[in-house]
Every structure is written in structure tokens, then in C-alpha cells.
Amino acid sequence: MVIYDILDFGAKGNGKTDDAEAIQKAIDACSGSGGGRVLIPAGKTFLAGPFDLKSNIEFYVQQGAVLKANPDENVYQESAFRENKGEGTIWIGGKDIELVSISGGGIIDGNGVVFMGEELEHSYKLKPFDKVDPRPHMITLIGGNNIKIRNITLKNAAYWSLHLVGCNDVAITDITILNSLKIRNSDGIDLDHSRNVRISNCHIESGDDCICFKNRREYAEYGPCENITVNGCTLISTSCAIKIGSENMDRISHITFINCIIKNSNRGIGIQHRDEGEVSDIVFSNMIIECRLFSDVWWGKAEPIYVTAFPRSAEDHKDAGWRLPKGRKNGRVGNVKNITFSNIRCKSENGIIVAGDCPEKVSNIRFNDVDLEINKSTHYPGGLYDCRPCEGEGMISGSTYGFFFQKARNVFVSNCFVNWGDNKTEYFRHALKSEAVDRLTIENFEGKAAFPEKDEAINILEPESIYNRVSKREIC
Questions:
Q1: What is the domain range of residue 301?
Q2: What is the mean pLDDT of the chain?
Q3: Is 84 within the bounds of a domain?
């Protein structure tokens, strides 16, 4: 393999000089000559502004090397979302590239804190801006094919860490993402209109979603997000560890998650559907989920599993014009269907929720061998389910249930268990609560109310015309 050492192209590696020009020269020479390895050598810190990857290269950040984002906001000019300039810029980019790998065991550092405002107790303030939010996304690859990202550490993102748009045949393996848990929007991996992707053996800590699948409106021509496997990942998030949505103007489908552990997160698994697309055929299995409440700065209320479909809020904020279809003042929500949760152990301050705008929007949801322990562990107020961004208040308030189903169709609960910890509060209620669910089936369910002297274990409020088959077994 031919090696293109960036030092040979003028890079200084002193942590002060911007080496982006030298890095780009090495990349261009490597790709132009048919391919090889672009080497970021060990023992130095290379400061760099924006540059683009090209086809047929191995971008190799050697173990012991650090590639760090230039702290000067003025060097970041290209929007991460085309004409929508209010959601960050591109640092390491690449368009219509193929046969590209990022590896080497080194560190790519987004220098995130320098792009933040004042540090608060629970987060950093976001700096005000006019039209362009200069915060750089770390890696943004658009229209890529045959992409390999392995054995690399990404850290300190100011915005998203790894954003793949319209990419096909992608393997992300053995990477570590370590972002500040106080930096908002510091997602780990975002797959956007991408397909045929394998994510495995990764550790991600993020102040926003650790792994997120979506279909952004700015890149509509790339089609659905589909055919994805996630295996053997450990995740920590101040927001949602695994999220489907909320931006989805197309289809997100045929996805499996297996053997993952979520700890100390604000929300575990979140299907947050708010647009006209569809979410379907997704399986979550063999997982451990531990959640807790955080400050209201962060979306989520410690829901270990969260499946919702509501029309997007049309309130006036910086990106409202990019969330709704062009020319529309109000959105609509598509269907969520054929979702399975199997062999999952949950501990949290809140329960599992499945809820929709109407029963037709959320259907064929299965829980098999899902155990849940609910216990109050922080001082933050509970009794809430966070449904933002949606029309209306955005919060369902009042009580906490083990399983809470509202306006859904064909919900199956089998071999599931609910237990309440020793630190119970007055808003802990039923083990299972169902409202306006068309065809609910419960079999071999074990659980009692948090306060059995006041409440029944299972509370079902349905129109008389709706059929339910319930076979329940309460714990004595």
C-alpha cells in the first residue's frame, strides 16, 4: 500500500498551525493516484479546519495521533444541511465517494467546548447566531458507497459526530465516541437516508442521541433509511440512547438491535415519529436499559421504551421552516407498525409508553419477556411522559405506569413483569394502563400496582366496541 504522510505535504503537527491544506493535498494526491493510505502520524496534534475525503483512500489516524478541529468559527462555511444554515457546518466532509475507510486507533477531536457559550449546571448555553450556526459536525459523508469506519475514537463534538447521508454498504465497528454530556446536539451516529449498514461493538457517550436513524427533508432524493443491524453496543445519553426519528419524511424500516446495553440515560429506546413518513419492521432484543430523570433542558422523562406518533409542532423556532413540507403550515404523521421488543430488562424512574394521534397510527406493537423495575432515584419531578415536538403541550402528565398504552391498535404483551422499588412516590400507579387501544392482548403478565391498597394492577379504559383478550397473573 502506498502511504501519503501528511508531514510530507507540509503539515506541522504543532497543535497551533492549521494543517487542513496539507491534509487536503495528501488526500487529493492519494485518490488521484488510484488510492492508498493517508497517514496522520503518531506523536503529534494536528489542528485543522474543513477538508474533504475522496474515493479509494484509507484515512488513517495512527494510534497516538490527534486530529483536532480549528477553534476559529470563521473557517466553517459549508452548511451541514444545504440551504438550511441554522443547524451546523461541515468539518470533515466527503460527497459521492466510494471505497473509503477511516481507521488507525487515533483520536479525532471536535474541540466542542470552544464553540459553546457559558457552562451551566446541566448544559452549556448555545451561542447566538444570525443565519449560520458555525458549530461543526465532525464527519459528514454524503452519497457514499462502501464505507468502513473502524478502530477510531471520536470525541468532544460541537454538533453531530458521524453523519452519513444517502450512504450505502457501510460498516461501523469498534469505534468509541466520547462527547460531553452537557453539550446539546452532540449526537453519536446519525444515519440519514442510508441503507445496508452494520454497526457493531461501539461505545458511545453523548449529550444527545447516541444512535439515531432519520430521513431529513434537506436530502429527500436519497430515499429510505433501511436494512440496518446494530449489535453489541454500549450507550450513555443525556437525551435518547437509541432514537428513530423525529425527522422522517420517507421510510425507516427493516432494522434490528441486539445485545446492547443502555445505562444512565434520559431515555432508552425512542421511536419519536413526527412526520409523514413511515416506521416499520424493527426488532429490539437481548438488551439491558437503565434510565433516570434529568433536567428539562433535555428531551425525555426517563422512559426506557418510548413509541409515539404525533403530528409535528408548527411553533415558530429557528428550523420550523425546514421540518414541515414546503408550503405547509401544519404537519401530519405517518404510521408506526410492526415493532417488537423481546428479552429486555429495564430499570428506570418511569415506565414504557406507546401512544399515537389515533389508534391507526401505531399498530402491531409486541412486548415479549420485557421486565421493568420502577424506582425513584433522583430529585427531578416525575409523573410525566415527554412527547415533544408535537402539537399541544408536549407532555402527558399525571401518573407513572409500568406499561402505558394510549390510542394504539394490536398491542401484545406476553410474559412481562413489573416491579416497583422501595422508593415509591404518590404518582406511581398501575402496572399496566390502557386507554382507547383497539385489540389489546395480555398473557402471563406479572405485576401489581405501586400501591395495591389504592389501585388495581391493570386498568383498561376502552370503548365497549373494542375487543380485548386479557389473561393476567398478579404477584401476591
A1: 239-472
A2: 94
A3: no
Task: With respect to residue 40, please indicate whether it lies within any of the assigned structural domains.
Answer: no
Per-residue pLDDT, 315: 66
Contact between residue 175 and residue 153 where contact means Cβ atoms under 8 Å apart = yes
Instruction: Give the Cα separation of 145 and 143 in Å (integer).
Output: 7
pLDDT single digits (tens) 96-135: 999 999 999 999 999 999 999 999 999 999 999 989 999 9
User: What's the rounded Cα separation, in Å, for the pair 41 and 66?
Assistant: 9
State the cell numbers at 289.
436499559
Q: What's the CA gap between 360 and 356, in Å, rounded?
A: 8
Kindly report the backbone phi and psi dihedral angles of residue 392, in degrees, each rounded to the nearest multiple of 5, phi listed first. Answer: 90, -155
- Residue 408 backbone dihedrals phi, psi, to 5 degrees: -145, 175
Number of domains in the chain: 1
Phi and psi dihedrals of 281, rounded to 5?
Answer: 55, 65
Evaluate whether residue 394 is within a structural domain: yes
Residue 463 confidence class, pLDDT cut points 50, 70, 90: low
Residues 6+ apart with CB under 8 A from 263: 234, 235, 236, 288, 290
- Which pLDDT score is estimated for 396? 87
Q: Is residue 468 part of a domain?
A: yes
d(CA 375, CA 69): 42
pLDDT (tens digit per residue) in 70-99: 999 999 999 999 999 999 999 999 999 999
